[in-house]
Design goal:
It is a single chain. The chain is of the alpha+beta class and about 350 residues long. It has 6 helices and 12 strands. The chain has helices at about 5-35, 85-150, 155-215, 260, 305, 320-325, and strands spanning about 40-55, 60-65, 70, 75-80, 215-220, 225-230, 235, 240-260, 270-275, 280-290, 310-315, 335-340. The protein has a 6-stranded antiparallel barrel. A hairpin with a 2-residue loop joins β9 (about 270-275) and β10 (about 280-290). α2 runs antiparallel to α3 (about 155-215). About 15% of the residues are buried. The model is unreliable at about 20-35 (pLDDT under 50).
Length: about 350
């Protein structure tokens, strides 16, 4: 078969391909012509904030109360770890707290006892001072009488001995006061130690109760369960993942814009999102992030043409109130197109006016 025959054989196929290509080109040009200059689009996927529900302490998974796809509310219990060990620790800590409380009462009683001993010894000091005064007065009288010859030397010596004895008794009583006061100080120190033990025991009880509360894994915010990572009966280490959930109040699309557009976008600028799975709807959004550094940068940026190659990552966030109205229809991972305007004063074309499901 010569060359001309081969060409004639494949000519119909080539004609069909050419017609299809021409039709696509015409359609593409007609679509592009609908949009005025200054509009730019970027491809991306719908994303939501992922949250791992993980254990704080090592242990066995007792129950998982939700399934994949379930919607949950903030504070809702999602899973429960085995609590027997922590419950036993709590009872032990509470017993030690009661013991420490009784020790405080005993220390307070000791302080009262030592303080009463101080009062008793102080009264004894006054008594010894009185005895000393009497002995001294008697010695003065004895000395006067002995000088006149009206009293014997023996009586004078006895009165002098009584003074020495009273002085010794007074010194001993004062020493007892110092000892009693030291006993009060020691008793108060024991009381402080006992009160500290109560505070430590109370802190231990509070910590274990916090661990018990943390062993009931709760949703930190509203969202949807995406994955059950673990199953009841599994033993997990500290930080082991049990569930993965999506925060459906924080849904964005990430796409890329050239420097000429990204440099003019402001945080909060309007955007439009069209999903491949639902091209009949136009979803409103707002620019929530523009990267400060280019994602695609040539090795050297010296010419204007090279600078046009710079692409910046941009995020558009869907309003929370809109997400709440269509919560069950929100799905992550869906591809689509995000549109932004270089000039915020330029109106959106009719094909990009907001269109939402009823």
């Amino acid at each position: 078969m010569n060359l001309s025959a081969k060409i004639k054989k494949f000519l119909p196929v080539l004609l069909v391909i050419a017609i299809a290509a021409g039709a696509y080109t015409a359609w593409h040009l007609s679509q592009e012509s609908e949009f005025p200059p200054g509009l730019m689009r970027g491809n991306g996927r719908i994303e939501a904030t992922e949250i791992d529900i993980a254990t704080k302490l090592p242990g066995r998974v007792e129950q998982i109360l939700v399934n994949e796809g379930d919607f949950v509310e903030a504070g809702q219990t999602l899973a429960v770890m085995n609590l027997e060990s922590l419950q036993a620790q709590l009872e032990e800590a509470q017993a030690r707290q009661r013991q420490a409380t009784h020790a405080v009462a005993a220390a307070q009683a000791q302080v009262a006892l030592r303080e009463s001993e101080v009062l008793t010894t102080q009264a004894l000091v006054k008594q010894r001072e009185s005895d000393l005064n009497v002995a001294r007065q008697r010695l003065r009288r004895s000395s006067t009488l002995a000088q006149r010859g009206a009293a014997s030397q023996q009586e004078l010596d006895d009165d002098r001995a009584r003074v020495y004895s009273a002085e010794a008794g007074l010194a001993a009583a004062k020493a007892q006061v110092v000892s009693a006061q030291a006993g009060v100080t020691a008793a108060k120190a024991d009381q402080v130690g006992a009160e500290s033990a109560v505070a430590a025991a109370a802190a231990t009880v509070a910590r274990i109760r916090s661990d018990l509360e943390d062993s009931r894994l709760k949703a930190p915010r509203d969202g949807r369960i995406q994955l059950r990572v673990a199953q009841p009966g599994e033993v997990l280490a500290a930080g082991g993942r049990v569930l993965n959930m999506l925060d459906l109040a924080d849904v964005t699309m990430t796409f890329f814009m050239p420097e000429t557009i990204a440099g003019r976008l402001a945080i909060g600028s309007e955007a439009r999102i069209i999903l491949d799975a639902a091209p009949q709807y136009v979803i409103p959004a707002n620019v929530s992030f523009v990267a400060s550094q280019a994602q695609f940068t040539p090795k050297t940026v010296e010419t204007a043409s090279e600078r046009q190659k710079l692409m910046f990552r941009v995020k558009a966030r869907i309003p929370v109130d809109l997400l709440q109205k269509h919560l069950e229809q929100v799905k992550t991972g869906l591809p689509g197109v995000a549109w932004v305007r270089a000039d915020a004063t330029q109106p959106w074309p009719a094909s990009l006016n907001v269109k939402l499901p009823e």
